Amino acid sequence: MALLFCPGVAHAQDDLADVVARAEQCVVRIDVENVGQGSGYVVASSGIVVTNVHVMAGAERAIATFPNGNKHEIRGTYWIDEGRDICIIQIEATGLAELPVATDLPRKGEEVIALGSPLGLSFSATRGIVSAIRKEAEIQADISDPTMRGTWVQVDAPLSPGNSGGPLINKAGQLVAMSTRASSGRAQNLNFGISAIDVSTAIKSAKGKPLQSLAETVGKIDMGEVHPESGEMVERTPIPESALQQYVERGKAEYSELAKDFRRAATRAEEICREMRSGKTYSPDPQADVVRVISRSKTEWYFRTESIKKREVSRQQARSSEMKRLREVIGTKPDNDSLFAVLWNFGPRLDARDKGKIGFMADAIVLRAFTEHDVIVLYDDVPYMMWVKDSSGLSPGQEMTPAPVFVVGSQTMEIPGRGPVAVTILNAVLESELRKAIFGDESAAVAGSSGVDKSALRTWRASSGSYTVEAALVDSDATKVVLKKADGTIITVERSKLSAADNEFLDN
Which of 323-332, 423-432, 438-447 has the highest mean pLDDT? Predict the structure, then answer.
Protein backbone atom coordinates (compact mmCIF):
# COMPACT_ATOMS: atom_id res chain seq x y z
CA MET A 1 0.00 0.00 0.00
CA ALA A 2 1.36 3.45 -0.90
CA LEU A 3 2.24 5.69 2.00
CA LEU A 4 0.28 8.91 2.49
CA PHE A 5 2.20 11.95 3.71
CA CYS A 6 1.23 15.31 5.13
CA PRO A 7 3.55 17.47 2.95
CA GLY A 8 6.51 18.77 4.88
CA VAL A 9 7.18 21.75 2.60
CA ALA A 10 4.64 24.51 2.03
CA HIS A 11 4.26 25.82 -1.51
CA ALA A 12 4.68 29.53 -2.10
CA GLN A 13 1.00 30.06 -2.75
CA ASP A 14 -0.07 28.17 0.40
CA ASP A 15 -1.38 30.20 3.29
CA LEU A 16 -1.51 29.14 6.93
CA ALA A 17 -4.97 27.63 6.52
CA ASP A 18 -3.63 25.23 3.86
CA VAL A 19 -0.79 24.13 6.14
CA VAL A 20 -3.16 23.54 9.05
CA ALA A 21 -5.64 21.63 6.86
CA ARG A 22 -2.94 19.21 5.67
CA ALA A 23 -1.33 18.73 9.09
CA GLU A 24 -4.68 18.21 10.79
CA GLN A 25 -5.22 15.00 8.80
CA CYS A 26 -2.49 13.51 11.00
CA VAL A 27 -3.94 14.66 14.34
CA VAL A 28 -6.18 12.57 16.60
CA ARG A 29 -8.25 13.29 19.67
CA ILE A 30 -7.58 10.66 22.34
CA ASP A 31 -10.43 9.71 24.66
CA VAL A 32 -9.26 7.66 27.63
CA GLU A 33 -12.14 5.78 29.24
CA ASN A 34 -12.96 7.05 32.76
CA VAL A 35 -9.85 9.27 32.77
CA GLY A 36 -9.91 12.17 30.34
CA GLN A 37 -9.01 13.50 26.94
CA GLY A 38 -5.95 14.67 25.04
CA SER A 39 -4.41 14.74 21.61
CA GLY A 40 -1.85 12.87 19.50
CA TYR A 41 -0.46 12.68 15.96
CA VAL A 42 0.44 9.98 13.46
CA VAL A 43 4.14 9.43 12.72
CA ALA A 44 3.87 6.18 10.74
CA SER A 45 1.20 5.10 8.25
CA SER A 46 0.96 1.73 10.03
CA GLY A 47 -0.90 3.43 12.91
CA ILE A 48 1.94 4.57 15.18
CA VAL A 49 0.91 7.65 17.15
CA VAL A 50 2.80 9.89 19.56
CA THR A 51 1.19 11.53 22.59
CA ASN A 52 2.04 12.47 26.20
CA VAL A 53 2.45 9.89 28.94
CA HIS A 54 0.14 11.94 31.15
CA VAL A 55 -2.61 11.78 28.52
CA MET A 56 -2.52 7.99 28.69
CA ALA A 57 -1.86 7.66 32.46
CA GLY A 58 -4.36 5.26 34.02
CA ALA A 59 -5.67 4.10 30.63
CA GLU A 60 -7.01 0.58 30.24
CA ARG A 61 -9.06 1.45 27.17
CA ALA A 62 -8.75 4.43 24.81
CA ILE A 63 -10.03 5.57 21.40
CA ALA A 64 -8.31 7.75 18.79
CA THR A 65 -10.62 9.90 16.64
CA PHE A 66 -9.60 11.64 13.40
CA PRO A 67 -11.06 14.92 12.09
CA ASN A 68 -13.17 12.97 9.57
CA GLY A 69 -14.85 11.14 12.46
CA ASN A 70 -13.08 7.80 11.99
CA LYS A 71 -12.45 6.09 15.34
CA HIS A 72 -9.81 3.48 16.10
CA GLU A 73 -9.04 1.46 19.22
CA ILE A 74 -5.65 2.11 20.80
CA ARG A 75 -4.07 -1.35 21.02
CA GLY A 76 -1.13 -0.66 23.29
CA THR A 77 2.23 1.07 23.79
CA TYR A 78 5.74 0.61 22.35
CA TRP A 79 7.68 3.19 24.35
CA ILE A 80 7.19 5.31 27.48
CA ASP A 81 9.55 8.12 28.53
CA GLU A 82 8.10 9.77 31.64
CA GLY A 83 10.93 12.32 32.03
CA ARG A 84 10.16 13.73 28.58
CA ASP A 85 6.45 12.85 28.79
CA ILE A 86 6.53 10.94 25.49
CA CYS A 87 4.38 7.88 24.81
CA ILE A 88 4.46 5.90 21.54
CA ILE A 89 1.22 4.02 20.95
CA GLN A 90 -0.35 1.80 18.28
CA ILE A 91 -3.85 2.35 16.91
CA GLU A 92 -5.94 -0.18 14.97
CA ALA A 93 -5.50 1.45 11.55
CA THR A 94 -3.19 1.49 8.51
CA GLY A 95 -2.62 3.65 5.42
CA LEU A 96 -2.61 6.83 7.47
CA ALA A 97 -1.14 10.23 6.66
CA GLU A 98 2.07 10.95 8.58
CA LEU A 99 3.11 14.22 10.19
CA PRO A 100 6.71 15.07 9.19
CA VAL A 101 9.11 15.73 12.07
CA ALA A 102 11.58 18.62 11.88
CA THR A 103 15.25 17.67 12.18
CA ASP A 104 16.37 20.95 13.75
CA LEU A 105 15.21 22.99 16.73
CA PRO A 106 13.08 26.03 15.87
CA ARG A 107 14.49 29.55 16.28
CA LYS A 108 13.32 32.03 18.90
CA GLY A 109 10.62 34.17 17.29
CA GLU A 110 9.62 31.50 14.76
CA GLU A 111 5.86 31.16 14.27
CA VAL A 112 4.20 27.96 15.51
CA ILE A 113 0.66 26.55 15.41
CA ALA A 114 -0.73 24.32 18.17
CA LEU A 115 -3.19 21.63 17.05
CA GLY A 116 -5.33 19.61 19.44
CA SER A 117 -8.51 19.51 21.52
CA PRO A 118 -8.26 22.23 24.21
CA LEU A 119 -11.09 22.03 26.77
CA GLY A 120 -12.64 19.27 24.68
CA LEU A 121 -13.03 21.54 21.62
CA SER A 122 -11.85 18.98 19.08
CA PHE A 123 -9.42 19.81 16.27
CA SER A 124 -8.68 23.43 17.07
CA ALA A 125 -5.68 25.56 16.08
CA THR A 126 -3.96 28.41 17.95
CA ARG A 127 -0.97 30.45 16.87
CA GLY A 128 2.03 31.96 18.60
CA ILE A 129 5.80 32.21 18.48
CA VAL A 130 8.72 30.36 20.01
CA SER A 131 9.63 32.29 23.16
CA ALA A 132 12.75 30.32 24.08
CA ILE A 133 14.53 26.98 23.85
CA ARG A 134 15.13 25.52 27.32
CA LYS A 135 17.78 22.86 27.92
CA GLU A 136 17.34 20.15 30.54
CA ALA A 137 19.17 21.83 33.43
CA GLU A 138 17.41 25.14 32.77
CA ILE A 139 13.90 23.67 32.58
CA GLN A 140 14.47 21.66 35.76
CA ALA A 141 15.38 24.86 37.61
CA ASP A 142 12.64 27.02 36.06
CA ILE A 143 9.85 24.51 36.69
CA SER A 144 11.36 23.21 39.95
CA ASP A 145 11.04 19.65 38.69
CA PRO A 146 14.29 17.61 38.72
CA THR A 147 12.57 14.68 36.93
CA MET A 148 12.19 16.57 33.63
CA ARG A 149 14.51 15.50 30.83
CA GLY A 150 15.29 16.66 27.32
CA THR A 151 15.02 19.94 25.42
CA TRP A 152 11.85 22.03 25.74
CA VAL A 153 10.36 24.64 23.42
CA GLN A 154 8.68 27.53 25.23
CA VAL A 155 5.82 29.10 23.24
CA ASP A 156 3.21 31.79 23.76
CA ALA A 157 0.61 29.94 21.68
CA PRO A 158 -2.41 29.48 24.02
CA LEU A 159 -2.56 25.90 25.34
CA SER A 160 -5.24 24.39 27.55
CA PRO A 161 -6.07 20.96 28.97
CA GLY A 162 -6.79 18.79 25.93
CA ASN A 163 -3.94 20.28 23.87
CA SER A 164 -1.61 17.83 25.63
CA GLY A 165 0.00 15.40 23.20
CA GLY A 166 -0.92 17.54 20.20
CA PRO A 167 1.67 18.80 17.71
CA LEU A 168 3.26 22.24 17.59
CA ILE A 169 4.02 22.75 13.89
CA ASN A 170 5.96 25.33 11.92
CA LYS A 171 4.78 27.15 8.79
CA ALA A 172 6.06 24.24 6.69
CA GLY A 173 3.71 21.85 8.49
CA GLN A 174 6.51 20.05 10.36
CA LEU A 175 6.43 19.00 14.02
CA VAL A 176 8.80 21.17 16.05
CA ALA A 177 7.52 20.15 19.50
CA MET A 178 4.69 18.31 21.27
CA SER A 179 2.40 20.33 23.57
CA THR A 180 2.99 19.10 27.11
CA ARG A 181 2.78 21.73 29.85
CA ALA A 182 0.12 24.45 29.73
CA SER A 183 -0.33 27.33 32.13
CA SER A 184 -4.08 26.58 32.33
CA GLY A 185 -5.41 30.11 32.05
CA ARG A 186 -2.62 31.89 33.90
CA ALA A 187 0.54 33.43 32.37
CA GLN A 188 -0.31 32.22 28.88
CA ASN A 189 3.25 32.85 27.63
CA LEU A 190 4.59 30.07 29.84
CA ASN A 191 3.62 27.02 27.80
CA PHE A 192 6.04 24.23 26.89
CA GLY A 193 6.41 21.42 24.40
CA ILE A 194 8.99 18.64 24.36
CA SER A 195 11.18 19.17 21.29
CA ALA A 196 10.86 17.26 18.01
CA ILE A 197 14.47 16.15 18.53
CA ASP A 198 13.42 14.25 21.65
CA VAL A 199 10.33 12.90 19.87
CA SER A 200 12.50 11.60 16.99
CA THR A 201 14.77 9.84 19.49
CA ALA A 202 11.75 8.21 21.13
CA ILE A 203 10.37 7.04 17.77
CA LYS A 204 13.71 5.42 16.92
CA SER A 205 13.90 3.80 20.38
CA ALA A 206 10.42 2.33 19.92
CA LYS A 207 11.31 0.52 16.68
CA GLY A 208 11.46 -3.24 17.15
CA LYS A 209 9.99 -3.10 20.66
CA PRO A 210 7.08 -5.47 21.44
CA LEU A 211 3.61 -4.03 21.70
CA GLN A 212 2.35 -4.10 25.30
CA SER A 213 -1.25 -3.69 26.44
CA LEU A 214 -2.44 -0.46 28.00
CA ALA A 215 -3.32 -2.23 31.25
CA GLU A 216 0.25 -3.57 31.54
CA THR A 217 1.91 -0.20 30.92
CA VAL A 218 0.18 3.19 31.14
CA GLY A 219 -2.75 1.64 33.04
CA LYS A 220 -0.43 1.25 36.03
CA ILE A 221 0.76 4.87 35.95
CA ASP A 222 -0.80 7.30 38.42
CA MET A 223 -1.74 10.66 36.90
CA GLY A 224 0.13 12.44 39.68
CA GLU A 225 3.39 10.68 38.78
CA VAL A 226 3.80 12.47 35.44
CA HIS A 227 3.49 16.04 34.21
CA PRO A 228 -0.10 17.17 33.62
CA GLU A 229 -1.10 20.74 32.88
CA SER A 230 -0.40 22.85 35.93
CA GLY A 231 -3.16 24.40 37.98
CA GLU A 232 -6.93 24.68 37.68
CA MET A 233 -8.83 26.74 35.14
CA VAL A 234 -11.19 28.15 37.77
CA GLU A 235 -9.78 29.49 41.02
CA ARG A 236 -12.52 28.96 43.61
CA THR A 237 -12.99 31.54 46.35
CA PRO A 238 -15.60 31.46 49.18
CA ILE A 239 -19.03 32.61 48.07
CA PRO A 240 -20.04 36.00 49.59
CA GLU A 241 -22.31 35.76 52.64
CA SER A 242 -24.61 38.34 51.04
CA ALA A 243 -25.27 36.02 48.09
CA LEU A 244 -25.94 33.07 50.41
CA GLN A 245 -28.32 35.10 52.56
CA GLN A 246 -30.15 36.36 49.49
CA TYR A 247 -30.62 32.74 48.34
CA VAL A 248 -31.91 31.77 51.80
CA GLU A 249 -34.33 34.70 51.97
CA ARG A 250 -35.66 33.91 48.53
CA GLY A 251 -36.10 30.30 49.63
CA LYS A 252 -38.14 31.40 52.64
CA ALA A 253 -40.35 33.64 50.50
CA GLU A 254 -40.99 30.88 47.94
CA TYR A 255 -40.92 27.97 50.38
CA SER A 256 -44.49 26.75 49.94
CA GLU A 257 -44.20 26.45 46.16
CA LEU A 258 -40.65 25.07 46.34
CA ALA A 259 -41.74 22.32 48.75
CA LYS A 260 -44.50 21.30 46.33
CA ASP A 261 -42.05 21.31 43.43
CA PHE A 262 -39.59 19.24 45.45
CA ARG A 263 -42.19 16.57 46.14
CA ARG A 264 -42.97 16.44 42.43
CA ALA A 265 -39.25 16.18 41.68
CA ALA A 266 -38.96 13.27 44.12
CA THR A 267 -41.72 11.45 42.24
CA ARG A 268 -40.00 12.27 38.95
CA ALA A 269 -36.71 10.83 40.30
CA GLU A 270 -38.45 7.48 40.77
CA GLU A 271 -39.78 7.65 37.20
CA ILE A 272 -36.28 8.37 35.89
CA CYS A 273 -35.01 5.22 37.61
CA ARG A 274 -37.60 3.15 35.77
CA GLU A 275 -36.78 4.85 32.46
CA MET A 276 -33.05 4.25 32.92
CA ARG A 277 -33.52 0.58 33.77
CA SER A 278 -35.24 0.08 30.41
CA GLY A 279 -32.55 2.07 28.58
CA LYS A 280 -30.45 0.60 25.77
CA THR A 281 -26.73 -0.20 25.99
CA TYR A 282 -25.93 1.69 22.81
CA SER A 283 -24.99 5.37 22.53
CA PRO A 284 -26.04 7.45 19.51
CA ASP A 285 -23.10 9.71 20.43
CA PRO A 286 -19.86 7.68 20.73
CA GLN A 287 -18.27 10.50 22.74
CA ALA A 288 -20.97 10.37 25.45
CA ASP A 289 -21.39 7.76 28.14
CA VAL A 290 -25.06 8.67 28.60
CA VAL A 291 -27.57 10.10 26.11
CA ARG A 292 -31.12 11.14 26.98
CA VAL A 293 -33.61 11.65 24.15
CA ILE A 294 -36.80 13.51 25.10
CA SER A 295 -39.86 13.43 22.88
CA ARG A 296 -43.46 14.42 23.47
CA SER A 297 -44.53 10.90 24.30
CA LYS A 298 -41.55 9.50 26.22
CA THR A 299 -37.96 9.82 27.38
CA GLU A 300 -35.40 7.27 26.19
CA TRP A 301 -31.99 6.59 27.73
CA TYR A 302 -28.89 5.21 26.00
CA PHE A 303 -25.71 4.01 27.71
CA ARG A 304 -22.40 3.29 26.01
CA THR A 305 -21.82 0.06 27.99
CA GLU A 306 -23.69 -2.18 30.40
CA SER A 307 -21.34 -1.22 33.24
CA ILE A 308 -22.05 2.48 32.66
CA LYS A 309 -25.77 1.74 32.70
CA LYS A 310 -25.48 -0.09 36.04
CA ARG A 311 -23.41 2.76 37.47
CA GLU A 312 -25.88 5.46 36.43
CA VAL A 313 -28.96 3.49 37.52
CA SER A 314 -27.33 2.92 40.91
CA ARG A 315 -26.50 6.61 41.19
CA GLN A 316 -30.04 7.65 40.29
CA GLN A 317 -31.55 5.07 42.66
CA ALA A 318 -29.53 6.47 45.55
CA ARG A 319 -30.70 10.02 44.77
CA SER A 320 -34.30 8.87 44.38
CA SER A 321 -34.20 7.10 47.75
CA GLU A 322 -32.76 10.19 49.42
CA MET A 323 -35.40 12.47 47.90
CA LYS A 324 -38.14 10.05 48.95
CA ARG A 325 -36.82 10.16 52.52
CA LEU A 326 -36.69 13.96 52.54
CA ARG A 327 -40.17 14.23 51.03
CA GLU A 328 -41.57 12.61 54.15
CA VAL A 329 -39.78 14.90 56.60
CA ILE A 330 -40.11 18.32 54.94
CA GLY A 331 -42.58 20.37 56.92
CA THR A 332 -45.26 22.77 55.77
CA LYS A 333 -43.34 25.72 57.24
CA PRO A 334 -39.71 26.71 56.58
CA ASP A 335 -38.02 25.61 59.80
CA ASN A 336 -34.25 25.43 59.42
CA ASP A 337 -34.05 21.70 58.71
CA SER A 338 -36.82 21.79 56.12
CA LEU A 339 -35.44 24.96 54.53
CA PHE A 340 -31.99 23.44 54.18
CA ALA A 341 -33.42 20.22 52.69
CA VAL A 342 -35.36 22.18 50.08
CA LEU A 343 -32.63 24.68 49.17
CA TRP A 344 -29.93 22.01 48.97
CA ASN A 345 -32.05 19.66 46.85
CA PHE A 346 -34.48 21.89 44.94
CA GLY A 347 -34.11 25.66 45.32
CA PRO A 348 -35.14 28.68 43.21
CA ARG A 349 -33.98 28.06 39.64
CA LEU A 350 -30.61 29.37 38.49
CA ASP A 351 -30.43 32.23 36.01
CA ALA A 352 -26.84 32.13 34.76
CA ARG A 353 -27.11 35.80 33.76
CA ASP A 354 -27.43 36.85 37.41
CA LYS A 355 -23.81 37.60 38.25
CA GLY A 356 -23.10 37.42 41.98
CA LYS A 357 -26.26 35.44 42.76
CA ILE A 358 -27.10 31.84 43.62
CA GLY A 359 -29.71 29.66 41.96
CA PHE A 360 -30.53 25.97 41.78
CA MET A 361 -29.14 24.22 38.71
CA ALA A 362 -30.98 21.13 37.45
CA ASP A 363 -30.77 19.27 34.13
CA ALA A 364 -27.16 20.33 33.44
CA ILE A 365 -25.17 17.86 31.32
CA VAL A 366 -21.45 17.14 31.62
CA LEU A 367 -19.57 17.93 28.42
CA ARG A 368 -16.18 17.24 29.93
CA ALA A 369 -14.48 16.93 33.30
CA PHE A 370 -10.78 17.59 32.81
CA THR A 371 -9.17 18.36 36.17
CA GLU A 372 -9.97 17.53 39.78
CA HIS A 373 -12.40 20.45 40.03
CA ASP A 374 -13.06 21.83 36.51
CA VAL A 375 -16.03 20.75 34.40
CA ILE A 376 -17.64 22.09 31.24
CA VAL A 377 -21.41 21.73 31.54
CA LEU A 378 -24.31 22.37 29.19
CA TYR A 379 -27.15 24.22 30.90
CA ASP A 380 -30.16 25.59 29.01
CA ASP A 381 -28.26 24.70 25.80
CA VAL A 382 -25.35 27.01 26.74
CA PRO A 383 -21.88 25.75 27.81
CA TYR A 384 -20.41 27.01 31.09
CA MET A 385 -17.14 26.48 32.91
CA MET A 386 -17.86 25.21 36.41
CA TRP A 387 -15.90 24.54 39.60
CA VAL A 388 -17.13 21.48 41.48
CA LYS A 389 -15.97 20.00 44.75
CA ASP A 390 -14.89 16.74 43.12
CA SER A 391 -15.06 15.91 39.41
CA SER A 392 -14.10 12.25 39.81
CA GLY A 393 -16.65 9.92 38.23
CA LEU A 394 -18.12 12.60 35.94
CA SER A 395 -18.24 11.61 32.29
CA PRO A 396 -19.56 13.12 29.01
CA GLY A 397 -23.34 12.95 28.71
CA GLN A 398 -23.90 12.37 32.43
CA GLU A 399 -26.37 14.61 34.23
CA MET A 400 -24.87 16.73 36.98
CA THR A 401 -26.37 16.14 40.41
CA PRO A 402 -28.83 19.05 40.86
CA ALA A 403 -27.37 21.59 43.27
CA PRO A 404 -27.22 25.30 44.17
CA VAL A 405 -24.68 27.22 42.08
CA PHE A 406 -23.08 30.67 42.35
CA VAL A 407 -22.64 32.79 39.19
CA VAL A 408 -19.10 34.16 39.41
CA GLY A 409 -19.24 36.17 36.19
CA SER A 410 -17.38 36.03 32.91
CA GLN A 411 -13.72 35.23 32.31
CA THR A 412 -11.92 35.71 29.03
CA MET A 413 -10.45 32.50 27.64
CA GLU A 414 -8.77 31.76 24.33
CA ILE A 415 -11.21 29.62 22.36
CA PRO A 416 -9.33 28.31 19.30
CA GLY A 417 -10.81 29.44 16.00
CA ARG A 418 -12.84 32.19 17.72
CA GLY A 419 -10.22 34.18 19.60
CA PRO A 420 -10.72 35.47 23.16
CA VAL A 421 -14.25 34.68 24.33
CA ALA A 422 -16.01 35.61 27.57
CA VAL A 423 -17.09 32.39 29.29
CA THR A 424 -19.46 32.44 32.26
CA ILE A 425 -17.96 30.80 35.33
CA LEU A 426 -20.11 28.91 37.86
CA ASN A 427 -19.10 27.68 41.33
CA ALA A 428 -20.87 24.86 43.13
CA VAL A 429 -22.08 25.95 46.57
CA LEU A 430 -20.57 23.91 49.38
CA GLU A 431 -22.88 22.28 51.91
CA SER A 432 -20.98 23.94 54.75
CA GLU A 433 -21.58 27.38 53.20
CA LEU A 434 -25.33 26.87 52.92
CA ARG A 435 -25.55 25.33 56.40
CA LYS A 436 -23.82 28.31 57.96
CA ALA A 437 -26.14 30.72 56.11
CA ILE A 438 -29.20 28.90 57.52
CA PHE A 439 -28.08 27.60 60.92
CA GLY A 440 -25.41 30.19 61.73
CA ASP A 441 -22.29 29.25 63.68
CA GLU A 442 -24.10 26.25 65.20
CA SER A 443 -24.32 24.59 61.77
CA ALA A 444 -21.54 22.16 62.58
CA ALA A 445 -23.63 20.69 65.37
CA VAL A 446 -26.75 20.28 63.26
CA ALA A 447 -27.50 16.74 62.07
CA GLY A 448 -26.98 16.50 58.34
CA SER A 449 -29.98 16.40 56.08
CA SER A 450 -27.93 14.34 53.68
CA GLY A 451 -29.21 11.22 55.41
CA VAL A 452 -25.71 9.95 56.18
CA ASP A 453 -25.21 8.35 59.58
CA LYS A 454 -21.89 9.85 60.65
CA SER A 455 -21.02 6.67 62.53
CA ALA A 456 -21.24 4.77 59.24
CA LEU A 457 -18.50 6.84 57.62
CA ARG A 458 -15.17 5.12 57.02
CA THR A 459 -12.01 5.95 55.09
CA TRP A 460 -11.77 4.22 51.70
CA ARG A 461 -8.36 4.06 50.05
CA ALA A 462 -7.23 3.60 46.46
CA SER A 463 -5.05 0.56 45.75
CA SER A 464 -2.44 2.97 44.35
CA GLY A 465 -2.49 5.01 47.57
CA SER A 466 -3.16 8.16 45.51
CA TYR A 467 -6.39 9.20 47.24
CA THR A 468 -8.72 8.56 50.17
CA VAL A 469 -12.38 9.41 50.69
CA GLU A 470 -14.62 9.48 53.76
CA ALA A 471 -17.94 7.86 52.89
CA ALA A 472 -20.62 5.41 53.98
CA LEU A 473 -21.33 2.21 52.07
CA VAL A 474 -24.59 2.33 50.09
CA ASP A 475 -24.33 -0.79 47.93
CA SER A 476 -21.75 -3.17 46.47
CA ASP A 477 -21.38 -6.14 44.14
CA ALA A 478 -18.49 -8.16 42.76
CA THR A 479 -17.18 -5.30 40.60
CA LYS A 480 -18.05 -1.98 42.23
CA VAL A 481 -19.17 -0.14 45.35
CA VAL A 482 -21.57 2.77 45.72
CA LEU A 483 -20.54 5.21 48.45
CA LYS A 484 -22.19 8.25 50.00
CA LYS A 485 -20.07 11.09 51.34
CA ALA A 486 -21.05 13.17 54.38
CA ASP A 487 -22.44 15.93 52.14
CA GLY A 488 -24.74 13.43 50.40
CA THR A 489 -22.65 13.09 47.23
CA ILE A 490 -22.96 9.64 45.65
CA ILE A 491 -19.85 8.14 44.06
CA THR A 492 -19.27 4.77 42.40
CA VAL A 493 -15.83 3.13 42.58
CA GLU A 494 -14.57 -0.03 40.90
CA ARG A 495 -13.50 -2.62 43.47
CA SER A 496 -10.29 -3.21 41.52
CA LYS A 497 -9.30 0.37 42.35
CA LEU A 498 -9.80 -0.08 46.12
CA SER A 499 -7.19 -1.20 48.62
CA ALA A 500 -6.90 -4.82 49.77
CA ALA A 501 -8.20 -3.79 53.20
CA ASP A 502 -11.33 -2.25 51.66
CA ASN A 503 -12.02 -5.37 49.60
CA GLU A 504 -11.59 -7.51 52.70
CA PHE A 505 -14.07 -5.27 54.54
CA LEU A 506 -16.59 -5.72 51.71
CA ASP A 507 -16.16 -9.48 51.61
CA ASN A 508 -16.77 -9.82 55.39
Answer: 423-432
